[in-house]
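Table S2 (text version). Query chain:
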Amino acid sequence: MTAPVTAVPASAARTAAVLAALETVRDPELDEPITSLGFVASCAVSAAGDAQVRLRLPTYFCAPNFAYLMVADAHDAVSALPGVRHVEVVLQDHFASDAINGGVAAQAGFVRSFDGEAVSELHELRADFLRKAVMAGTDQVCRPLLAAGKDPAALLAMTLGEVPPSRALDRLRARRAELGLPAGDDARLLIEPRTGAPVAAESVPLHLRKARLTRVSIEANGAICRGMLQHRYNNTKGQGETVPAADSDS
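Corresponding structure-token output:
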């Protein structure tokens, strides 16, 4: 006998859609979704289409520029959902929450939100962290190739289309595309993240070392942030929070 199909309540489906939108928002420094990091304290959307998102961070003094990017990106991601008519994103327990929440709600931009303190918008900061994500992703893709016996000279000659499929490769392609860097099958595996130019042969060892150090640094910062968040909120999980996989190719 077939078990009856239980309908998903409309409110649960709406909340799931908001959570899925928030999964596209990343901590710019850690290159991880704010959901999996535990930064989403709660999210919900009413039948009328009014969405409310509450965010939390590991410390009271987390950098306001990073916090602003996450709040603004969360606002944009949820606002783009069909049927959402109004979005309120509230950053809790942060020294600059009033300026950030008010500025994002008013679509004022970072400079106007921190009038007299900020001198430029955050586009270059975002690009800098994307370049770091590209370097870290390069290590995530290259380490298995080196472990399988490829030498650095072979990596220099490889294109993305020649790399075995993996989640790490998909992520590397996505980060490169966000920066406008070559990301197609014919693109070189090893490129300079600022210019997109192929890495010179004599620079390959240094490039690979930088890629590894960047990955290790990002992963270490992520572990520290998770630990501080757990301590600050007594191990209360955020919506969508996940345990990081042991393998960085996750």
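Notes on Table S2: The beta strands are 26-27, 32-33, 40-45, 50-55, 86-91. The two ends are 39 Å apart (CA to CA).
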